[in-house]
Amino acid sequence: MLAAVLEGVRRLELRDVPRPVPRRGQVLVQIKACGICQTDHSAYTGRRMNWQPPMIMGHEMAGVIAELGPEVEGWSVGDEVVISPVITCGKCRWCRLGMSNHCKNGIVLGGDGQEIVWDGAFAEYLAAPTEILYRKPEHVPFEAACLTEPLAGCYKGMIEYSQLRLGEDVVILGAGSMGLLLAQVAVAAGAGRTVVVDVVPSRLKKALELGVDHVINAREEDVRRRVYELLPEGPDLVFEAAGTLEAAQLTYNLTREATRVNMFGVIIPGEIEVSPMNIHWQETRMDASFSVTPRVMTKALDLIAKGRVHPERIVTHTFSLREIGEAMKAMESAERIKIVIRPDA
Which regions of the chain are under pLDDT 50? Predict the structure, then answer.
């Protein structure tokens, strides 16, 4: 089969590699769509180096079952599926507490977050155990279905961890793919007023198209002053989804009494200045969220199936697998939001 193999920093090579053979309890999935995550691009550029070459990346995936391995029940060739990238043991303390994304025996397919990494979906086929399969609703396009995993991460952070309540005012810093999925979750959950901050006009325009109430261009306005003009009583919840230390600092600068914050996007080393005294007197509460669990994968797929969230609306580019080099170049464009690879294109 054809696969894009990461051989080293900025060395993503198209290779003819052996097609996986599904083992006991596994199926072979023909990949129909796989999103490019920022963590994929960070591995490609060397921004993160917690990976070993050669590696097949790609963990936002959906496809069609092409072959059943031994002892597989309840699935058939031709079934359309969404695949979670996280395989867990189900036995350790974290799994039994419902926090399986922290599983100490965990495996990730083509991604980041667990020490053990198996090949991902920048390929024509992928072998996956049935416990990480979810049935794709027939009416949901593959471009939407493959984004179930990032949407699940956003649902987990916004609803399950930061506990957005009906009518609360939300500020989201960053209008990339995750920021715009967070915005869709906030709107669907009944946020009072939703404010999105970014520096790219086209992304801010997309945020308005997705139903947010206000946008702020951080290059043109003082963000804190403008936020408090729009929300005189201040935000109930501030989400950092830009992935920069500057955005993390701004997150705390926007708080008032009882504001909740979520450090969602920053996964790079560094520090910001935070006052423990202010946290104490304001009763600031901080959350963070990484990876997904079976529960939030199920919830995210429900949101897509019921038409409450439309991940395909943030897709700005699609490429074939043979064009993955061009796709990685497009990742560096300020205008792109979400890029999806279609291996069969």
Answer: none
